[in-house]
Specification:
6 helices; Rossmann fold; about 45% helix; about 20% strand; single chain; five-stranded parallel β-sheet; alpha/beta
């Protein structure tokens, strides 16, 4: 039996967060949600199972999305992350302090349902075995 993949969405915009929850639930993912950085960390700390992917808004008011990811990765080193933002990645990189994001998975808002699903499948797809 195939394990259901779990995704935690951390976004302080209720409309965006709720839309992502609906889309991912319909695609068969188990979805956890948080509207603040503190709540995202609490959800992660209280979740006994595997969280396969964190979808984090770049800015969560009290903390940056990459900071939430760093803290979560201390306890969940295999956690994958997708950062989302209404600002293009180039602008975020110019602001500094997001070196982690520049080499990470990123999706600019607004994005389509299809773009989100393709990006998530790409991130969660197991690496291809190499033959020697």
């Amino acid at each position: 039996m195939k394990r259901l993949r779990t995704i935690l969405i951390a976004d302080d915009e209720p409309i965006v967060r709720n839309l992502i929850v609906v889309v991912l639930s319909r695609e068969g993912y188990s979805v956890l949600e948080a509207d603040t950085a503190a709540e995202a960390l609490a959800v992660s700390n209280n979740c006994e199972g595997i969280i396969d992917l964190l979808i984090a808004d770049h800015s969560l008011k009290t903390m940056m999305g990459w900071q939430v990811a760093e803290k979560m990765c201390e306890a969940r080193p295999d956690l994958k992350t997708l950062y989302i933002s209404g600002y293009p990645l180039e602008k975020l990189a110019q602001e500094g302090g997001i070196g982690v994001v520049t080499n990470a998975n990123f999706l600019a808002k607004p994005f389509s349902r299809e773009a989100l699903i393709v990006k998530i499948r790409d991130i969660l797809q197991p690496p291809m075995a190499t033959s020697n």
